[in-house]
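To illustrate the input format used throughout this study, we show a single complete record. The first block contains the structure-token representation of the backbone; no residue identities are included at this stage. The design step must infer an amino acid for every position from geometry alone.
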């Protein structure tokens, strides 16, 4: 895997996702691919809550449940609807965001997956964005939504490609900062 800044001061990205049926995981993987750097991809139940100082970008994504981020009850409903286990049963991004500690200089971006129907309100990404802003981590871009065709999916055609492009866009926003940090570190 390559790094964003090269040299001794490699700055990493962390992509944390919550996924019930695999659609949000697929988008998270595509975003990580688009970032094209030293990227750690973590399901929310295994994601670190103490964000390391060499993580310069955190991307958080989850499915939209009941007009916002999932709750234990909505995750139970997803499990019941699936007829079997889901990927993120234990905790969701709501709980993870309540536990994280990160440097105020950490760049963040958020996305969600949601049903592709007009006039359905709510967004897990907007709710996560508000929570991050309250803890002093404003997003570097507006929240992004990726669309599924039904509650359990599949993803709408073209959404994986759009996620790769979004990841590349995020990398283009943070790469100059990472390169500056790398230059400063090498000059010491």
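Output of the design step:
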């Amino acid at each position: 895997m390559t790094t964003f800044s090269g040299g001794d001061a490699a700055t990493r990205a962390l992509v944390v996702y919550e996924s019930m049926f695999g659609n949000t995981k697929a988008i998270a993987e595509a975003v990580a691919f688009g970032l094209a750097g030293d990227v750690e991809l973590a399901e929310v139940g295994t994601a670190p809550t103490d964000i390391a100082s060499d993580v310069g970008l955190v991307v958080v994504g989850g499915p939209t449940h009941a007009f916002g981020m999932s709750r234990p009850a909505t995750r139970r409903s997803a499990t019941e609807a699936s007829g079997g286990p889901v990927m993120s049963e234990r905790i969701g991004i709501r709980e993870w965001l309540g536990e994280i500690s990160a440097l105020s200089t950490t760049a963040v971006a958020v996305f969600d997956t949601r049903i592709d129907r007009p006039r359905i309100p709510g967004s897990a990404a907007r709710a996560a964005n508000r929570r991050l802003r309250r803890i002093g981590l404003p997003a570097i871009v507006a929240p992004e939504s990726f669309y599924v065709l039904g509650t359990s999916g599949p993803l709408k055609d073209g959404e994986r490609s759009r996620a790769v492009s979004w990841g590349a866009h995020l990398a283009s926003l943070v790469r100059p900062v990472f390169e500056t940090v790398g230059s400063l570190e090498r000059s010491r």
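Structural context for interpreting the output: DSSP finds five helices and five strands in the chain. Strands lie at 12-17, 39-43, 55-63, 107-115, 144-148.
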